[in-house]
Amino acid sequence: MSETKVKPLIAEELLTQLQVEAAVESQVILHCCIKSDMFLEEKIRIWSSTYLVDRQSEHVSKLIHFENISLFPDWTDIPFGKDYWFTLVFQGLPKDCKVFDFIELIPQNGGFFREGIRRNASDVYKIRLDI
Fold first, then answer.
1. What is the pLDDT of residues 30-60, one digit of tens each?
2. N or C: which end of the chain has fewer CB within 10 A?
């Protein structure tokens, strides 16, 4: 007996939707550097309310992963007088995004903020942050 293979029919609307979702599933990686030179015992943390915002469309990419930094309410100690690096991974930005902002929205002073980051082809960035 021979088996006949039948190609399934997929609605055009579903195919279009899947293509859009696949394009948006890319990730943006920020390698962030902080230097503590004001206090001997400096601490940092990241809140889940940290986003990348496309300046043209106001699209918001959520934080999906972090390395070498604690998530609120925990703290990470950073060494005095040395560069300290941590990595944040966000949902992808729209393909036509050219400039975006990095914003940590928190209910207190001192949230991370970097305005006007120019998009590059790799979507991997190294930025310096102030504390």
1. 999 998 877 678 899 999 999 999 999 989 9
2. N
Tokens of 102: 């990095």
DSSP the chain: -PPPP-PPP--HHHHHHHHHHHHHT-EEEEEEEEEB-S-SSEEE-B-S-EEEEETTT--EEEEEEEESSPBTT--EEE-BTSEEEEEEEEEPPPTT--EEEEEE--SSS---EEEEEEP-SS-EEEEEE--
The answer to the question of residue 43 being in a domain is: yes
* Model confidence pLDDT, tens digit, residues 71-86: 999 999 999 889 999 9
Q: What is the CA angle 58-62-64, rounded to 5?
A: 160
State which residues form the domain around 94: 27-129
